[in-house]
Amino acid sequence: MNSLKKKIAGLSIQGILLVSSITLLVVMMVVNRLLNSFMDMTDERAQKLVHEMTANSKANEEQVAQLIQETTLSKMKSIVEHDVPTLQTPFLENSASFIRRFIVDSYHLDPELLHVSFFSVQKGGIKAWQIASRQLPNGCDPRTRYDQANQSWIVPRPDGPDLVVPDPSLARLIDAEGYFVQEIFIDKERALEAIAPIYDKDSADLASLKQDGEAIGYIRYVISLDRMDRVIAAEHEKAERALQKTIAANTEAKRAIAAIGRRFEVFGLLVILASSCCVLLFSIRHSRRKAELLAQPVRQLRDAAQVISQGDYEQPVTVKSDDEIGELAEAFEIMRKKIRTFTSNLQGLVDERTRQITFEKAKMQEILDNIELGIVTIDASLTIDAQYSPYMDKLFATKSQSLAGATLQDVVLSPLRLDNDHKDRIVESLKIGIGQEDLSYMANASHLPRRGQFQVARDQEARTFSMDWNPIMQDDQVSRVMLVIKDLTAELEMQRQVAAAREQNDRLMQTVSEVLRSPRERVFPFLRKARESMQLLKNHIAHQDFESALIDLHTMKGAARTLRLDSLASQVHEVETMVKHGDSEGLQSFEIWLQHYLDVVQMAFGFDSNAPTATIGDTSLFHLVAQSLPVLLEHAAQSRLRVQRISIDDEILAWPPHFIDTLRAILIHALNNAIDHGYALPIRAGRPHRDVEINLSAQVVGDNVQVMIEDHGFGLDLDKIRQRVRERGLSRHFEEHPAEALLQDGFSTAQEVSLTCGRGVGLSSIAKYVQEFGGRIAIRNVAQGSGTQLEIAIPMSRFQVSHGMGRVG
């Protein structure tokens, strides 16, 4: 078979052989000798120049590589210096959720980061907090552990076997003292790896913490050096272009030299031209005859192809030729038969696919019709798509009109309780994000609310909806956004009711536990008296007698602390603060709270708050102090004090019942004042530690019953009292007799208010009680820095007492 290639070659060779032979002989003989010397010299200079440019290119590549590596090291150091302080506090506070979210966000924000992880080391054990890498772009399971034997991370996966991530360099990095950087290869890619420890630098250094087995956090980064390789490649390509340009210039020089020789070739060219004309005439005549033989089957094949392109697959392709055109015609005939067969089956395939698409759309619409979620999709113009869940009509009360074609602003943002600026930011964020890459959308997603209050109808209360904004990707861009809305109103109301029930239960349990800690024969009378005192307190407030109200509240608080009714004492303390500032509404709230407290006690113990308060029989000073002793010891212990001795010298065998409550209140205020101002506050201010010693005595002196309460603390700071007198603008009398200023209402030297001191009510309360019985009170230093003595004298005419001698230590 004569091929088409042979036919074409036969036409060309006849002329080419003759022309080429004559040209080569003439040109080589005339020009060769003249140009050899010039070409050699040009080649030598060109090779030298190429060598110099190659050396300079390598030097430039090394300089660029060093500069980029230094830049990458600086960037790594900057990241570590920024992130270590950021993660120090969450790590010390064990805030795992913040650290896990921070590591994943850091990985996604910088495309050059190949690996970001945070783990802690304690007593040789390694715990992974979070790992983000190409294998784990969204972080690792919290159960991830480090297999030190195989030097690998074991990452659990819910849908398959555990993922094993080799990490042989971890042990060497942990042993480094402080910040450490090295160059590594990850998946045949060069990268820089850095690790920095995170620990409480104020408590101890890193070596001490490792030795003590304390937990030490480590943050680890791996930055790709791919950018450096690309820059080096670019520099190399630039050098190659310059080299090629030089070679081209050298070639141009060679051409110039060759032009010189062309003047010597004119004669040879004339000879070649004459010979070529003869060959050309012969070739044209012969080629026309051969071309006609080739064109005929090609035209036949063209006509057959046009018939097929017009859709006629029944007419066969008949071209007779014994070369490649004949083979092409046979291939056309086979293609015609296959197209005819495929066309006959195509309509059936189209019908089947149409039925599948219709079924899938119906199934999707059935899901949307039955799901109790509002689901819509919006495009770049924020227009709602035609396919949405009917539950949207229920959420936004739009049954009378279709949401298809409506805007997000009219349907969702209009009833949302947000200011217009915030709504504008939502609209702008969506318009900017849709049509862009996923990273751009995520950068603006922070302006999209996840929960909001919606006022759907004027006659209904606002409802709480959650909003989930999901980007729909197409061709690596966000084409639309799916908004999923859920009504959380009922769920949040249930959570509120559960929280209220839990709070009420906790309050009930606290009240019961407090009452169980103290003798009920003392608690019940106190609660009845507290209830009876509410009317007296309201009278004080009504007459603007805040001083008397504060004294009664302070006494009630001290009695509650003595009975270890801590929650009641705390409530009274808060009411004191409000009354101190002239706020009478706090007393109303406290009355409601107290009634609830009494209801709980009545329900748990059968306590009757309306029963008359029993009169307490005669008792001794010892019994009154013994009742307050547990709270007194607890108060001292809270101030880190040790009670060494409390002595009681009581010559009064039985105190009259109508004076017992007053005496108890006096003792509570006096003992708390002695511990706070005699010991705790001076020691807190820098005085040396001193154990608590208090002497109490009661005796008949002349026509008076004298009660002495003496501590062995640091005594009265008279200079500080005078300074406070001047600050408050009191009379000059109190500068000359500073101890008497302590008996004034609201006068205190304490810098802070606590449950036991700071309001200036304790000593003024004692003074009021003593004055009500026609007595007198005095306070003085025993000796400078050796204790304080409180003396109370009450006329015996105000009550009858039996007196004898008793001493308790």
Percent of residues in beta strands = 15-25%
Q: Please give the order of strands in the largest beta sheet.
A: 17-18-16-15-13-20
Give Rg in angstroms: 50 Å
Q: State the shape.
A: elongated
Ends distance = 137 Å
* Biggest sheet details: 6 strands, mixed
Unreliable segments of 5+ consecutive residues = 614-618, 804-809
Please report the total strand number as a whole number: 20
Content-based structural category: alpha+beta
Helical fraction equals 55-70%
Mean pLDDT: 77
Question: Main traits of this protein?
Answer:
alpha+beta, 6-stranded mixed sheet, disordered C terminus, single chain, 22 helices, 57% helix, 5-stranded antiparallel sheet, 809 residues
Topology of this structure?
Elements: H1 4-92, H2 96-109, E1 113-122, E2 125-133, E3 145-147, E4 152-155, E5 163-166, H3 170-175, E6 180-186, E7 189-198, H4 206-212, E8 216-224, H5 226-262, H6 266-309, H7 324-370, E9 374-378, H8 391-396, H9 408-413, H10 420-433, H11 438-444, E10 451-454, E11 463-474, E12 477-487, H12 489-517, H13 520-542, H14 546-562, H15 566-580, H16 585-605, H17 621-638, E13 643-650, E14 652-654, H18 657-684, E15 692-701, E16 704-711, H19 718-728, H20 732-736, H21 738-741, H22 762-772, E17 776-781, E18 788-795, E19 802-803, E20 807-808
Parallel strand pairs: 13-15
Antiparallel strand pairs: 1-2, 1-8, 3-4, 4-5, 6-7, 7-8, 9-12, 10-11, 11-12, 13-20, 14-19, 15-16, 16-18, 17-18
